[in-house]
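[agent] plan:
  1. take the single chain provided in the ticket
  2. run structure prediction with default settings
  3. attach structure tokens to the ticket
  4. add a short note for the reviewer (M.T.)
[agent] executing step 1
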Amino acid sequence: MSERRDDGGASPDDAPETPAPRSETPPARPSWGWPLLVVGLAILGVLLAIADTALYGPSLGPYATFVIGPTEVRRGVSAPSQDPGRFERTRLPDRVTLAGPFGSLGPMSPLQALRAFLSNAAGLVLLALGVLLLFPTRSRVAVQRLEGRYGPAIALAAGVATFLLALGVVALLRFTLFFLAVIPAVLVVALAAALFGIACIGLALGRFLQRWLRLGPAHPLLAALAGALVVFDLAVIPYVGAIALAAVAIGGLGVAVVTRFGSETGWSFTDLNW
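[agent] step 2 finished; step 3 output follows
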């Protein structure tokens, strides 16, 4: 017969079990997905710029000149004349002509393409990152609405409507005398709105690539850097880059208009009632 404890205490067998110490999870390894993505987008941009120099021909159009620069860079001091029989081993060729299967592709200029990437792409990236640094809260609100349902379609439609309205306003102001000085102000406001929208689109593209490629967590500026490179790569696609860049710019204008530069409240006619 087992003994019964009269003190009301619990037996040793009824004591709660102490939980076993949890094994600490090893620290996450650094992911190489983001660096590889950024480097790959940069290399793709340079290759597309090289294709532009070859396909647009010696006399570049206005859009090609705007994106990849002029064909020749003139210097104020002329180079001294050299002996034509002298062989220079250290000088790299400015242009390389490759013969394709269906004929010559034209003179390619790797140095000019690299210069275009270091100037235009770097400028676009710095502008996008600068907007995100100056207006982080407004950029977050704009990106959230852009990632919502029918967000890109609404932004593009609003951008087209705003662009047509701005053209009408500028056309009307040209026939006036007192409001001619307002035209530069309208252009500056439209440019600022488009830059804000392009920065938000770049961040949204970076977040999309993060989800699509299943990349690890990263700093928002790194995602914005990848998105800005995507915008530049779209702009330097031969013959289609102008349409892609115009669509991104008009969509950015629409993002700024629809969200009122990232305002929390958005558009509402209740503000007119007081």
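[agent] step 4 note for reviewer: The radius of gyration is 29 Å.
[agent] ticket updated
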